Amino acid sequence: MPTTIADLAADPAPLTRRLVVGREAFVLRALLPSDTAAMTAFLDGLSETSRAFWHGDVDAADQAAEWVEAIGRYDKLRLVIHREDTPGRLDGMVDLSFCVPDVAELSRYAGYGIALDPRRTARFGPCVSDARRGTGLAAAMLPPTWDAVRLLGCDRVVLYGGCARGKRSRATVLPAARVPRRGHVRRRRRHRHDARHRSIRRTRRRPGRGAVGRCRTRARGPAADGRA
């Protein structure tokens, strides 16, 4: 039988991953009943800019309590991440939904020529604390998130609020993406002259800077050719 959200609530171990971002060790895992206070603090700590795009119109304590109460129920799975040595302070989370509403998502994506299969599609919304923005933490959370999506039988994801207008135009249309195959790495095609071009760039300097290679420094003044 396929894994269910209730199964993962009873045994969340398959969702747990240890990640290293920079030089810090993190643990990504399922949201637990003991995380109410930590989730409240995480939501309260988001800036106004972040909250404008992430449950900003809901009280943090009420939202955290609602998410904890919903563990193992409905169609939601929530992952959290924290430093290995500070499990009581959350640094980010991923909100996953395995229900794709007809009007909100299916019809909207169909209008852009993208056909979604609700049985194989999940919606996701990542969020990291303001202090962790730009550190690579959000990117590190994606592979374990795709593992969770595959574990529950889906192979396509769409971003929550993938099409927005007006003030929230930052969340523009996000095409539905296939979940990458495990171990798949997209490689950049290298030109056969790349290595030669890099070696040339390393040796190029403006005259007068002591460079070697194609642009050699020329001494200036009357002593340049040994004459006084």
TrEMBL record:
Region (Disordered), start-end ranges: 181-228
Matching entries from InterPro entries are given as: Acyl_CoA_acyltransferase (IPR016181)
- Residue ranges annotated as compositionally biased, kind Basic residues, are 181-208
This chain belongs to the protein called Uncharacterized protein
The source organism is: Virgisporangium ochraceum
